[in-house]
Recover the amino acids of this structure.
């Protein structure tokens, strides 16, 4: 199956998003 | 496990569901009674809601640990998914608690939940941070110490993600060796 991979930049951007 | 509909629609799902554990050293109680499951999460947003709500590791008292493990794996050697495995260990100098510890721990958590080791991420069980007066430790635990290719790949990527220089080496210890030897005698199985 497809693995859900997130890089550091994406994860950090999610921190303060509404 | 099925996610609530709201999570599917509104949040970024993680590959795995994760469990955060907290250990507080109370010598009057058994080791396992000091280990508590804090909560589980399976989306990026829920990870941040948790992370931003709890104390940073550098503010915990000495003797405390945080552990983040895949749901279903307990943060102890004895768990069937850990007992054949081992850990990449980062030992920090005392003065690094203020400068580096929280950054290293957050980057460790992001490596895990982001599945940043690619297909080798299946080898990962979790990560542990130990707050200790003689020096703090961070480790990522993998499930099979004999899988040299996977273990060394994970170690190389981990070291790169923490931004450690090439002159610094980190070592991997099998839990079976850690469990039977005192710290200073535990043999290092791999180095990157």
């Amino acid at each position: 199956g497809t693995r859900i991979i997130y890089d550091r930049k994406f994860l950090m951007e999610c921190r303060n998003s509404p | 496990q099925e996610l609530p509909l709201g999570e599917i629609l509104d949040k970024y799902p993680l590959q795995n569901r994760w469990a955060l554990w907290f250990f507080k050293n109370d010598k009057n109680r058994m080791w396992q009674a000091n280990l508590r499951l804090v909560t589980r999460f399976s989306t990026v947003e829920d990870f941040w809601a948790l992370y931003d709500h709890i104390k940073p590791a550098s503010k915990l008292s000495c003797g405390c640990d945080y552990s983040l493990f895949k749901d279903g794996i307990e943060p102890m050697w004895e768990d069937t998914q850990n007992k054949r495995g081992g850990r990449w260990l980062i030992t920090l100098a005392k003065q690094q608690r203020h400068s580096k510890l929280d950054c290293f721990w957050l980057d460790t958590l992001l490596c895990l939940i982001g599945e940043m080791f690619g297909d080798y991420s299946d080898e990962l069980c979790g990560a542990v941070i130990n707050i200790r007066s003689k020096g703090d430790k961070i480790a990522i635990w993998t499930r099979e110490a004999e899988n040299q290719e996977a273990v060394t790949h994970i170690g190389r990527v981990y070291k790169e993600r923490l931004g450690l220089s090439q002159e610094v080496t980190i070592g991997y210890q099998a839990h079976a060796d850690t469990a039977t030897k005192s710290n200073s005698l535990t043999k290092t199985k791999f180095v990157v």
Remarks:
- The helical segments of chain A are 8-13.
- The radius of gyration of chain A is 10 Å.
